Amino acid sequence: MPLLVYKESHILSAQQLRKLSEHKYSCFSASLLDPLLQPWWNWLVSQTPLWLAPNLITIVGLILNIVTTLILICYSPNGVEAPPRWTCALCALGLFVYQSLDSIDGKQARRTNTSSPLGELFDHGCDSISTVFVALSACISCQLGHYPNWLFFQCFCAIALFYCAHWQTYVSGTMRFGRIDVTEAQFSIIAIHLVSAILGPEFWLTKIGIGDIQLWYGPAITTIVCGLLSLTYVFSVIKAGGVGKNGSTVAGTSVLSPSIPLTLVVLPALIIAQKSPENLFTEHASVYIMAFGMVAAKITNKLVIAHMTKSEMEYLDWSLLGPSLLFLNQYFNCIVPEIWLLWFMLIWGTQDLLRYCSQVCLEICQHLRINLFRIPYNPKAGVPHPATASVSSQSNLGSSADKNGGTSHRKYKSKPH
């Protein structure tokens, strides 16, 4: 099967790029924690150099989040072994840094007059990857490897809810956050890591009350309740119909169409885990979650692009090659060791996601005539170069409403839990 080389052809058409330039971010938030954290975010961004590009802030936070999670995974790859307490503390710190930097990138864009649709897409793209690692790290801290079905449910619940948040945005044209949403979920997971760091990961296996009820039931039940509430709202939006013609999506497509790519990821993941003769998920839980997580991140990014460009979403994707090979291998009685295909899926899915995102960012940068990680800066004036400011003012269409009442804060939260 020939490799898909993105650089030889454009991913975004001229019409999609034109629609992207016209895109205006619409957001509604009723978060409980966001107003309380505004003073911290405002102080933090005031200490940020004006030459530091908003997207660079975002990617640095993501890298720290991933690295701290990978350290945790190295000590407990299946969530069974109790990782050292310091690794849990490190994950808490990594997530806090990511959350803080992810919350000031928009404020930095406003300060430097460099808001653009690319900022929204880049932020959502980083969040789609972060969701996988944040969910997995929380499960390892809670020692859910002792209960593989729960570990599977918790991680794929987070991945699916993230996707569904963008599904309802694709339908309604507006990203909506409830009172208990992404910020609250992130700080809850930080709290889980801190408890594991102070009392030890084994603390979550402590039995309480009558029967075999353990402390990890608390976070698990909370996820179920919040997930059901989020899904109820998402499907109420979908049922009510979209803003497009005859109740369709922003692209004029069926409101149910985004369910197909999600099903092509979650359903094979469930079937392969349950039918594996080598107990693939149980024995290699972290690799399994990361491999399918990269596929889910790819289709989520395509959904975000479809929304921002008001275009139809493609159902099939090269990232699905990995799940397809695992599925076919099981069908033919595992002629290839499953772990080989799982590692291939992780490597293939990761490089496919990175190449796709890189090419999309490159095309948007060329179209808007902006840089991804750099702001031409005039130290004497203390502001970005006039040429950049001019381009940015023309493409300042991706700005979102600031959580404290502003109108050009480029903060895009997207993970309801």
Overview of this protein structure:
Its main location: membrane. The chain is mainly α. The chain has a single domain (32-368), classed as CDP-alcohol phosphotransferase transmembrane (TM) domain (Four Helix Bundle (Hemerythrin (Met), subunit A)). Helices cover 62% and strands 2% of the residues. It has helices at residues 14-22, 34-46, 54-75, 85-112, 117-141, 148-172, 182-199, 217-240, 259-275, 280-283, 285-308, 321-331, 338-368, 386-394; strands at 27-29, 175-177, 377-378, 383-384. α6 (148-172) packs parallel to α11 (285-308). The radius of gyration is 21 Å and the shape is globular. The two termini are 38 Å apart.
State the gist of this model.
The chain has 14 helices and four strands. By secondary structure, the protein is mostly helical.
CATH class placement: Mainly Alpha
Strand content: under 5%
- Report the biggest beta sheet as strand number plus sense, adding barrel if it closes: 2 strands, parallel
Secondary structure tally: strands? 4
What is the ordering of alpha helices and beta strands? HEHHHHHEHHHHHHHEEH
Strand order of the largest sheet: 1-2
Number of helices: 14
**Tally of structural domains:** 1
Looking at this protein, list some descriptive labels.
417 residues; 14 helices; globular
Could you give the topology of this structure?
Blueprint (H helix, E strand, L loop, with lengths): L13 H9 L4 E3 L4 H13 L7 H22 L9 H28 L4 H25 L6 H25 L2 E3 L4 H18 L17 H24 L18 H17 L4 H4 L1 H24 L12 H11 L6 H31 L8 E2 L4 E2 L1 H9 L23
Parallel strand pairs: 1-2
Antiparallel strand pairs: 3-4
